[in-house]
Amino acid sequence: MGMEAVNTGISDADSVEDDETEDDQTVEASGDPTLGQVLLAVEELWPESLAEDWDEVGLVVGRPTVPVTKVLFAVDPTLAVIDEAIEWGAELLITHHPLLLKGVNSVAATSAKGLAVHRLIEAGTGLLTVHTNGDSAVGGVSDVLADAFGLENVTPLTVAANGLPEEGIGRVGELRELMTLGDFAARVFEMLPAVAGGVRVAGDKDGLVRRVAVCGGAGDSLFDAVRASHADVYVTADMRHHPASEAREGATNGRPYLIDVSHFASEWLWLPAAAEALGNVLADQGYDVEIRVSSTNSDPWDFILTPGGD
Ligand SMILES: [Zn+2]
């Protein structure tokens, strides 16, 4: 559903490019798009202006003049993911998380990040970050989560500073019917890719929920917005002890209940939707680029011990 909203905005082929004025009646692209042209398509979908101030998004490695035939989408620019992109022959790897969020003084291949930069450049594979701009946009990470969990009448949890009213971090919406917290948690578990950490829930398993807040990735800084939204349950990742504990202590009738999921899993769900959206924009411009979602699980956790139960 989010994807349809995205596509309606870019269906006019002649609105896409400023530079190619010779042939503005029909855009019949020949050959492969350059990396620079793919960047313009990305900007249509996930404008950099939607990124948070602290974030670093955009092109990390790559020449804008290089032709692009294959694009791989992934959550993390880990070495395993980079190897997957190179082995497949992708000229562009698009990841949700930045490789270089903090300033660096060296990209020598003596550190993991330096090695990542070397492997990418040596293979001729570009790296592009679509992070909080991908969270905030219509059809972004939390929109896809809301859709997967069956939410309707979805609005942002916090409206974007530089965007439309429907853009922003997190989403809140309603289930079509009341569900128990246990059943809703089972739905969340089923929709997300399987990871070692599973899904953790705080609240009465038989308590009823209808209004649901979601935030892909680490969302425990949004509890004020969650309470203001009157959500019955909040689904996010990386919930730390103190924010979670304080939210439970301050809950009204036990709500909002909390569902803590894998950071990787919560953002992975966006990848197929993002790949499809980018493919549609490029196809509207006459380009046929092969776009694939990484099969690498970059969740850092490998196994879990619990005291039992089901
Ligand atoms: Zn994240």
Any descriptors?
Udp-n-acetylmuramoylalanyl-d-glutamate--2,6- Diaminopimelate Ligase, Chain: A, domain 1; 11 strands; 32% helix; 310 residues; 22% strand; binds zinc ion; 2 domains; 6-stranded mixed β-sheet; 5-stranded mixed β-sheet; alpha/beta; disordered N terminus
Q: Order of SSEs, N→C?
A: HHEEHEHEHHEEHEEHEHEHHE
- How many DSSP E strands? 11
CATH class of the largest domain: Alpha Beta
Provide the spatial order of strands within the biggest beta sheet.
5-6-8-9-10-7
Poorly predicted ranges: 1-26
Give a quick account of the main beta sheet: strands, pairing sense, barrel closure. 6 strands, mixed
Helix residue percentage: 25-40%
Q: Which second-level CATH architecture of the largest domain applies?
A: 3-Layer(aba) Sandwich
Descriptive overview:
- The protein is of the alpha/beta class and 310 residues long.
- The two termini are 34 Å apart.
- It is built from 11 helices and 11 strands.
- The strands form 2 sheets. The chain has a 6-stranded mixed β-sheet with strand order 5-6-8-9-10-7.
- It is 32% helix and 22% strand.
- It has 2 domains: 2-134 and 268-293, Udp-n-acetylmuramoylalanyl-d-glutamate--2,6- Diaminopimelate Ligase, Chain: A, domain 1 (3-Layer(aba) Sandwich); 138-261, Udp-n-acetylmuramoylalanyl-d-glutamate--2,6- Diaminopimelate Ligase, Chain: A, domain 1 (3-Layer(aba) Sandwich), CATH 3.40.1390.
- The longest helix has 15 residues, at 270-284.
- It has helices at residues 2-8, 35-45, 79-88, 112-123, 132-136, 141-148, 181-191, 223-228, 241-249, 263-268, 270-284; strands at 58-61, 70-74, 92-95, 126-129, 151-159, 168-180, 200-202, 208-218, 233-237, 257-261, 290-293.
- Helix 2 (35-45) packs across helix 11.
- It binds zinc ion.
- Residues 96-97, 217, 263, 267 line the site of zinc ion.
- Zinc ion binds at residues 96-97, 217, 263, 267.
